[in-house]
Design brief:
2 copies of one chain form a homodimer.
Chain A (H helix, E strand, L loop, with lengths): L3 E3 L5 H8 L8 H17 L1 H12 L10 H8 L4 H19 L6 E6 L2 E9 L2 E5 L8 H14 L3 E5 L12 H9 L4 E3 L3 H10 L9 E3 L4 H11 L6 E2 L7 E6 L5 H12 L6 E6 L2 H15 L5 H8 L3 E4 L3 H11 L3 E5 L3 H5 L7 E4 L5 H6 L25 E9 L1 H17 L3 H18 L1
Parallel strand pairs in A: 1-11, 4-5, 4-7, 5-6, 7-8, 9-10, 9-12, 10-11, 12-13
Antiparallel strand pairs in A: 2-3, 3-14
GO molecular function (chains A, B): histidinol dehydrogenase activity; NAD binding; zinc ion binding
Catalytic activity (chains A, B): L-histidinol + 2 NAD(+) + H2O = L-histidine + 2 NADH + 3 H(+)
GO cellular component, one term (chains A, B): cytosol
Amino acid sequence: MTRVINWPALSVSEQQAALARPKLADSAALGEQVRAIINTVRQQGDEALVAYSQQFDGLTANSLRLSVETKLAQLNKLLPERKAAIELAYDNIRKFHAAQLPRDIEVETSAGVMCQLRSRAIAAVGLYIPGGSAPLPSTVLMLGVPAQLAGCERIVLVTPPGKPEAGDIAPEILYAAELCGISEIYTIGGAQAIAALAYGTETIAKVDKIFGPGNRYVTEAKQQVSQDARGAQIDMPAGPSEVLVLADNSANPAFVAADLLSQAEHGPDSQVILVSDSTALIEAVQAEVASQLAQLPRKDIAAAALSHSRYILTADLAQAVAVTNAYAPEHLIVQTAADDELTAQFNSAASIFVGKWTPESAGDYASGTNHVLPTYGYSKTVSSLSLADFYRRFTVQTLTAQGMRNIGPAIVTLAEAESLDAHANAVRLRLAELNNVEG
Amino acid sequence: MTRVINWPALSVSEQQAALARPKLADSAALGEQVRAIINTVRQQGDEALVAYSQQFDGLTANSLRLSVETKLAQLNKLLPERKAAIELAYDNIRKFHAAQLPRDIEVETSAGVMCQLRSRAIAAVGLYIPGGSAPLPSTVLMLGVPAQLAGCERIVLVTPPGKPEAGDIAPEILYAAELCGISEIYTIGGAQAIAALAYGTETIAKVDKIFGPGNRYVTEAKQQVSQDARGAQIDMPAGPSEVLVLADNSANPAFVAADLLSQAEHGPDSQVILVSDSTALIEAVQAEVASQLAQLPRKDIAAAALSHSRYILTADLAQAVAVTNAYAPEHLIVQTAADDELTAQFNSAASIFVGKWTPESAGDYASGTNHVLPTYGYSKTVSSLSLADFYRRFTVQTLTAQGMRNIGPAIVTLAEAESLDAHANAVRLRLAELNNVEG
């Protein structure tokens, strides 16, 4: 059974250690390996892409782009119940993100000085959908819906070729993509796919920004291409997924245990934390975790994650909130008798799940919020993925002659104060012309 | 006289070369030097900070924080005309940014499923104001006004100690900071200041995000701390400043020349481009540049920048727009007989200056728009600095029992499709409890 941490008994440095995240492996070997893959794709294009896909992903075809025939054949296999569930999730995600449409702003700051802030969709975006043991249609929706709503000119989806042969992309993924209006799909994955998106090949035109989760090769490749001005921007920094559940003795221990386990099954490096002011609740949850864990197909993964989970006992709920804010969790579940009051006090979580009927699974799939979230403490500064991430903002200003008369002298004064005489001169010339016209 | 590039006569690769930006020096030596400074500040704190400031910036005092006495003494030296100009700029910048206040969003996506997108100011921000030959009060306003409007809990300003002695921070900088409500000011600069902001020292508490321009040491240090989850986020990637002027034969050559020169005087690496469909306009501008240049105090810097400037002659204005969009300039000035029509077609500039009465200086100082802008082609994806950069967005969801009944079954179906059984189980348990209550 996991050790319970008695928070008030810890020193400040012990408290910091109790909330510390695992140090991410900073592998120079991984960096070099990924750099070599990226360089090879940049130099050899499609040829390298096919070779790497055969080597790493068992690609058997020579075609990188998913054909319409293959897509339709796969879509025919979709179970009606799954089709309906994907549609429900799509609808909710779309409703929530559609409410985020940016508004252009226009302000006349001084008479004759019009300033605008405009938003425009990023032209070409690449969506990375991991392969692996199970398809992830939910991630297609989380990335595809905002790209569709923003109206990006090109939405490119890449995902590793399925088994047993290339093109066996899961029908759930293809249907989610279909709803999002995505028709440009390539069956590639790994660092080579990120390289192709960032720099382009003969078949795949370069994109401007890359979104989506992936394994450590994908994460490293995203990091590398984002450091190159000729590469591509990325959605956000990556890290292991996390949940912090804040519960008091009014919570249902079975629900809390299920919520902890649903984070733990993501991977052995998942971070799972329970914070409570109630010893009874913590003990009941521990018993529930043990009994539910035994039933899970992915119990080995969950058990590995649970081995470094933390149960933190606080003196009261105010201290529990302080612990939560210091940790800055990716997912924060709150199940107490004072949920609304506490929710107003959280200042660093990326996504908050309020009350006994709101498990993390709701946001992972179908509540409508985005499940692409900053983790590893980044949520103190990095935003949860939203429609805004698919836009760029730029400004437009227009001065009339009157506007120049009104603010020109101040500009000259400031430019002189900054010893930028050419800046002043660009205004002096115009003020002189205005005086000539009037004179 | 700068060579004129006849755009239609170029091959595609020659066109790409004509718009290529200078390769940024990727100096391993600089990286190592900055890494050493950062590590020393992390290990030795204030002691290292003082030592570096004495070594690099001629700091003579031991005190890092600007005292109230010194500040008041300096403010007394502010010329009334400059005070008024700073106030005008402050007012306009504030009006434009206040119009950008984020609105929280709440959507009921399915009955009983409430989803919220909330914005909250980043708690602690650090503003870097470069020192050098002239003070930059305008940069204080561009960073300080949105930080003040967002309501960041801590706004920390750092700027290199002035000459001849520490604490001789220009009154213009201090007055701009005063208007923005900034009271925590440290007289430090360079990579050591970035390290102190990102990691904290005994005197300076760590911040969450660092804003502002700087020399190559500062830029490299910002880059390095932003790569560390324990460091700090930064505003945007850096690069040399740029202007592209698109003008036809209706433009005033003296104005165009002055606008090109005001970019050229920023530094020898400034990028200056004129695009026009008129040979006559290009020739007239070249003559004007030569005559105005001779009068400038910073003519050596401007001449160096002009030596790699480009005058591009296009077949028509449509082609001029295409060239502009391909280049994606930081600053885009348009002075033609069809300004409004063209402005609607620009899809990649960071800030657009429309018409003869709108020089770049207007946006640099006092129109109200922000002068912190993505450059080096980043404006295709990176936004101009705006109020949003001082906030983080997060989501909150709350399901009622009815909400769980409505979307729970779809969540179970999707979780099963993704082989995430614990995710499904967190919902199955809740649906079972609801059935029990009803049964």
